[in-house]
Records
---
Amino acid sequence: MDKIIEVRNLRREYIRKKGIRNKETIVAVDGISFEVGRGEIFGLLGQNGAGKTTTIKMLTTLLAPTAGECKVLGFDCFGEEEKIRNKINFIFGGETGVYRRLTARENLRYFSNLYMLNSSKQKERIDEILELVDLKNRADDLAETFSKGMIQRLQIARGLINDPEIIFMDEPTVGLDPVGARMLRNIIIKLKEQGKTVLLTTHYLQEAEELCDKMVIMKDGRIVKSGVPSEIKGGYVTLEDAYIDLVGGQVS
Amino acid sequence: MAIRRFFEQAYLYHKGRQAAFNAEEFVLLEVGYPLLTMIFHCLIASYCYGTNDLGEWVVGNSFLLCVNSCIFGLGIVFMNERYTGRIRSIIASPCNKIALILANGIFPAILAIIASFLGLIVGVIVFQIDYSKVDFVYIFISIIVAMISASCFGLLLGVLGLLTDSMHMVLNMMEGLLLILTGAEFPIEQLPICVQYVSWSIPLTKSIKAVKGIRVGDYKNYWLLLLLELLSGIVYVVLARFLFAVVEKETRKKGSFDYY
């Protein structure tokens, strides 16, 4: 299978100031390696602070690696980012990232302009995506009148606006109600059917098991296990039990 | 196509970030507050210099009305984007960053032109200034050039918002510097020589001098001063683009795009 994400010995450190003179180095990602094939749904799992978001930020060209290799579509994420940006997009969980004083449609027009979509394609794409995330009836309402779940759906629409080849999703179901979460899972499956690649982080292990072709479990910036869900589960009945064991929790 | 996209982006930027919700809010924020500030400064000048001919101060202070939208409005643009988590989408997009920076400045510049022109008219009426010998077309051209330059300067300051979270301090300091150094409140010839160089390098100084000149019938250096003002604006935008590229790289290394 064509490898479109390649991560080798990737490391990311942050320097944190402690007082006036002292500095502390924090290792967020500590020499991880993995590959993602075209058309795969790949899961990055781990506790808060495991390094998942930092990894996604490096892959989406927002953060420079301290060491190691980080390639998307064969291009370096730091140095060759211009060749990548048109073909990827990302969805971060939470309520930030959209303009609350714009309508849903205006938000999507704004973000599609960032990807330089021409006007006929833009209109068509916006209508299509609004339908996909079930916001067509509220398309001309201001985002500030939306519920948390609706804003998250608008975020999803924003992430799909440029019809990306690879979509990075960082806890995309945060804030979604069960119907919204199911809708997102269906969108992810649909994207896979279209040949898109999805890299996903989530705390919902059932969701990860249902969606992911392959996954890695991260702990303290390192990968503690990788493979297909059945390999990760090993002898445990559920992925949750295996996960808790791997991250050092107590399985009851 | 690119032009349509540019202006649409300018409109959406403005509406999404700064547009007032209702007419009252808009009038108070963009017109009421700046006009009162201008009247206040002119009254201080009247008291300090013991004169009733406030023509010079009305010109200078009406130009300074742009501070509200061009300096404070634009100066916090990128800082706001960081606070709201939208900067990620902007940075990681393939769009032309110089067009993106310029599109930010369109509406604040238009608002600043309106505010300055209104300020001048209100100042002329309130302080009974005699402008009967001055061609208002020249003044209007000066205002347009000055506001373009001020907007470009605001954009340059705004890029610093990618680096620091102390933009309010930077912008307040900048407002003070503009008050002192542009010649709006007193002639820049009264400043030390080295500070005069700073005066000439900041926006508004040249256009204020041009308008003060035509007020007393001196049209000799008018076009030269406006050309210099316009060139300053171009230099600010080029610097903003350059700074944006440097800062983008630096913040990607430091990991300081997001506030949270």
---
Amino acid sequence: MAHVLLFGRLADVAGWRERAFDPAPATLFALKSLIADGDAGLAAALDAPGVRAAVDRTLISGDAALTDGAEVAFLPPMSGG
Amino acid sequence: MIRLTDQPFDPGAELTRFCQGRNRTGAVASFVGLARGDDGEAAVLELEAYPGFTQGEVGKMAAAAAARFDLHEVTIIHRIGAIGVGDAIVLVLTAAAHRREAFDACDFLMDYLKSRAPLWKKEHGPEGSRWVEPTARDMADVQRWE
């Protein structure tokens, strides 16, 4: 199982902020395709410039292998202050 | 000290406490960010964090600033949740031997918080809600340090 978290505008676009995908896909990119499958708006939002992914609370550049029980967060452009 | 809080805080009281009991420190710089009203356009700001992640990432920024500017101490307090106009959103306090390091560290930390801290800001106004993302200026500001 992969536990997926969406933040900011991504949760608004998807209409959900937490969801489990069981079984966990083998890679981050495969998970992303699965999440976006059938939701063109979410697919575009996930591919928008500046969207980052974190696996088990570590920022990832590019693809990554997923293990069972992974927590995967999709993070739109960040803005504090 | 890094603190994310959903409660209002008093920047003046935090600054007073931060300055107390120092010996080697010759300079403390502070920055307070306030929720701006823009003539009633944004009635409420809402800040979302990633629990268990945001605090650690902000801590890494503080550690980088401490090493780069030879700081004696750093405090960052950041509001999350709903924030009213005029409330303090963020407080950055830096302590160093001399003023240049304290000022620069404060500036550096705010530039990083604006575009690299895992926080997401939504403005709720009379014409609906919108997510705020870093501006071109914010991105140029953070690049000054790289």
